[in-house]
Amino acid sequence: MNWSFFHKLGSPKWLYELAEKLIPWFLASGISALLVGSIWGLVFAPEDYQQGNSFRIIYIHVPSAILAQSCYMMMAVSAVVGLVWKMKITDMFIASAAPVGAAFTFLALFTGAVWGKPTWGTWWVWDARLTAMLVLLFLYLGVISLRNALDDAEMVTKASAILVLVGVVNIPIIKYSVEWWNTLHQPATFTLTEKPAMPSEMWIPLLIMVLGVYLFFGGLVLMRMRNEILSRERKTKWVQKLIVLNAEEQQV
Amino acid sequence: MGGHGLYVWLCYGVSLFIFVVISIQPVLAKINLVKELKQIQRRKKADDFSAHEQKSGEA
């Protein structure tokens, strides 16, 4: 088993250079997929026979919700790896991913509420899934505030990792809530094993949006991790050289 | 859009706004960070230079 990849992950400089190469690809592909998916969903997908055009909100609501949960799971894995192997990159990932995850959670809740009003006559109910998603938003905001409140770097790392792990029990609750309790939110559109009930003109743009949102997320998190690295490694020679190069570029 | 236009466009509009904000934020942060690090570097060079001058002045 080739462990050198993991050793490289421990090097901020290697990660910085990798990020520089990957960010444009992630952003370009993510944004293209989001554009294609949204335009397809807004203009070309057929109207729903029950909900009319308001169902088009699905093209934002579902990808955001999926990503909000995935992001948290990634943070949880990072937290475990960080607590066990003490790699700086895991803490940088948690710091970079939390605000992005929070934004997507908010978007899922907001679009869900706006979709709910014309469809079910209400902006909000204390449905299991909705409540659990709200808890997820609070967890994200909690991680962000905790990191801002503490000073000692080691404490920040440990405390945010522990908070992330304590909250991870929420994710299966969100996922299975629609199976365990029969309240307002509808069951899953997609499962891994069955064909979706929607026609392909409706679910293909949804798949494109999910892909787009993941790629976009990748680009965003890498951009933030790049800044984290620069800030934390500011005293090293390679960062100092980078700043000088930057300065010379601007003078020319 | 069958009367649901407001809801649909509100959602897409807010999403676009949020996407733009979370994209621009790290770009601005990087610009500010590089500016700050350059300033520190400049100050350090000035300190080193004056310390060197003092030393050679005393010698």
Short synopsis of the structure:
The complex is a heterodimer of chains A (252) and B (59). Chain A has one domain (23-251). Chain A is built from 9 helices and no strands.
Describe the structure.
The complex is a heterodimer of chains A (252) and B (59). Chain A is 78% helix and 0% strand. With 252 residues, chain A is mostly helical. Chain A has one domain (23-251). Helices cover 92% and strands 0% of the residues of chain B. Chain B contains one helix and no strands. Chain B is rod-shaped, with a radius of gyration of 26 Å. Chain B starts with a helix and ends with a helix. The interface between A and B is medium-sized, with 40 and 28 residues.
Mean pLDDT of chain A: 89
Report the radius of gyration of chain B as a whole number of Å.
26 Å
- Count helical runs of chain B: 1
Fraction of residues in β-strands of chain B? under 5%
Distance between the termini of chain A: 47 Å
- Measured between the Cα atoms of the first and last residue of chain B, the distance is 84 Å
Helix count of chain A equals 9
Tell me the total number of β-strands of chain A. Answer: 0
Strand content of chain A: under 5%
* Biggest β-sheet description of chain A: none
Number of strands of chain B: 0
Rg from alpha-carbon coordinates of chain A: 21 Å
How does the helix and strand content of chain A classify structurally?
mainly alpha
Uncertain spans of chain A: none
Domain module count of chain A: 1
Structural class of chain B: mainly alpha
Describe this protein with a few key phrases.
heterodimer; A: 252 residues; mainly alpha; 9 helices; B: 59 residues; 92% helix
Task: Give the topology.
The complex is a heterodimer of chains A (252) and B (59).
Chain A: H1 4-9, H2 12-44, H3 58-85, H4 88-120, H5 128-149, H6 153-167, H7 170-180, H8 200-232, H9 237-251
Helix pairs in contact in A: 2-8, 3-4, 3-6, 3-8, 4-5, 4-8, 5-6, 5-7
Chain B: H1 5-58
